[in-house]
């Protein structure tokens, strides 16, 4: 592929809601003065990709090219680019631009841009579709391409651009570390990174999972304890135990029961995105000055800090690399919970 005048690239797209993904081509803009062209090497499959394809979160544009866990190599830079050079290892996460001038952008919270951040997919603030990482190349503004440090393979780094930052941000914001008891709810693509990161931060980590099926994995990843939430005794035995609980579950849950596991002043943070509203008894918060919070990925600087932290502690995602023609099968396996713990597409198989 030529590095100049990029117009179309090979990709895998869902042609319509709930449709199987198939090979196609999509447009990419020419490389502007402040842009970089990235040859995508690997792209993780996030559960949110499936939600988007199925329109679980509302109407979306099609054809849709999912993918916001992108790792690759810079193959061209614009004339004004200073942050990256050809040959650099880079990653792209959930968004590829923002206004950069609003209060949130200036504060490093580009994901909450008051004028609308541009998602890696499926649609930008202008209403035009954007195409994600299930493709061979992508053009992005240099400021939104993250440096992937040496020491993390590109395939293990790809899921960090969503799963990694999604857990790193709340764990550091609510001071997970030595002397703190932290529970991670759910041991999947998000949760397994939560265990690794919380353990590396020095916290005492417990996994709360529906069953004990993944107990050995949880302990291997760094948890000191593993409990089944299907057992009512768990909520009695662990009442008032945790300083911080981070839930990765994308389904409604008994929030009152989980808040009962917190110490006074403790915090329950949800990073999952259930499709339906949930309910809570306010006395579960009032009793013990407890906090119920949410968290959504992180800004550019925080995402870079996460990548640097993971490299320093030799943390990558546990992955299964697949060819592009196995994407639809991977979607079915994600829904069945049959992955340990993140599918990553080898995008060389798309071309």
Automatic annotation (TrEMBL):
Top EC group: oxidoreductase
What keyword terms does UniProt attach to this protein?
A: Metal-binding, Oxidoreductase, Zinc
Under Enzyme Commission nomenclature, its number is 1.1.1.2
> Domain Enoyl reductase (ER): where?
19-345
Instruction: Name the catalysed reactions.
Output: a primary alcohol + NADP(+) = an aldehyde + NADPH + H(+)
Q: Which PROSITE patterns match?
A: ADH_ZINC (PS00059)
Under the heading SMART domains, the entry gives: PKS_ER
Q: Which Gene3D superfamilies does this UniProt record tie to the protein? A: Medium-chain alcohol dehydrogenases, catalytic domain, NAD(P)-binding Rossmann-like Domain
Question: Transmembrane segments in this chain: where?
Answer: none
InterPro entries recorded? ADH-like_C, ADH-like_N, ADH_Zn_CS, CAD-like, ER, GroES-like_sf, NAD(P)-bd_dom_sf
CDD domains, per the entry = CAD1 (cd05283)
Q: Which GO terms describe its molecular function?
A: alcohol dehydrogenase (NADP+) activity; zinc ion binding
Per the record, the similarity remark reads:
Belongs to the zinc-containing alcohol dehydrogenase family.
State the protein's name. Answer: alcohol dehydrogenase (NADP(+))
- Organism of origin is Yinghuangia soli
Classification of source organism: Bacteria, Bacillati, Actinomycetota, Actinomycetes, Kitasatosporales
């Amino acid at each position: 592929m030529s590095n100049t005048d990029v117009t179309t690239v090979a990709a895998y797209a869902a042609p319509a809601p709930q449709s199987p993904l198939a090979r196609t081509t999509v447009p990419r803009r020419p490389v502007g003065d402040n842009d970089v062209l990235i040859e995508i090497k690997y792209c993780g499959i996030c559960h949110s990709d499936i939600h988007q394809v199925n329109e679980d979160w509302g109407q979306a544009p099609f054809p849709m090219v999912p993918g916001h866990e992108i790792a690759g190599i810079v193959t061209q830079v614009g004339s004004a680019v200073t942050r990256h050079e050809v040959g650099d290892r880079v990653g792209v996460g959930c968004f590829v631009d923002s206004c950069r001038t609003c209060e949130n952008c200036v504060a490093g919270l580009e994901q909450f841009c008051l004028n609308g951040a541009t998602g890696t997919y499926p649609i930008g603030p202008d209403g035009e579709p954007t195409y994600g990482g299930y493709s061979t190349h992508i053009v992005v503004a240099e400021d939104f391409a993250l440096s992937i440090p040496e020491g993390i393979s590109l395939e293990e780094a790809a899921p960090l651009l969503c799963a990694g930052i999604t857990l790193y941000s709340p764990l550091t914001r609510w001071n997970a570390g030595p002397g703190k008891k932290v529970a991670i709810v759910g041991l999947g693509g998000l949760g397994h990174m939560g265990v690794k990161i919380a353990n590396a931060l020095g916290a005492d980590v417990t996994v709360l999972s529906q069953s004990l099926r993944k107990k050995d994995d949880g302990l291997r990843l760094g948890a000191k304890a593993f409990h089944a939430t299907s057992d009512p005794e768990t909520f009695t035995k662990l009442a008032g135990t945790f300083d911080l609980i981070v839930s990765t579950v994308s389904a409604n849950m008994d929030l009152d029961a989980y808040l009962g596991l917190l110490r006074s002043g403790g915090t329950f943070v949800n990073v999952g995105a259930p499709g339906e509203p949930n309910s809570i008894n306010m006395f579960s918060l009032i009793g013990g000055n407890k906090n119920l919070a949410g968290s959504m990925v992180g800004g550019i600087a925080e995402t870079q800090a996460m990548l640097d932290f993971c490299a320093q502690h030799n943390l990558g995602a546990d992955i299964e690399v697949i060819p592009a023609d196995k994407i639809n099968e991977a979607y079915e396996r994600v829904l069945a919970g049959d992955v340990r713990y993140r599918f990553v597409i080898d995008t060389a198989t798309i071309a």
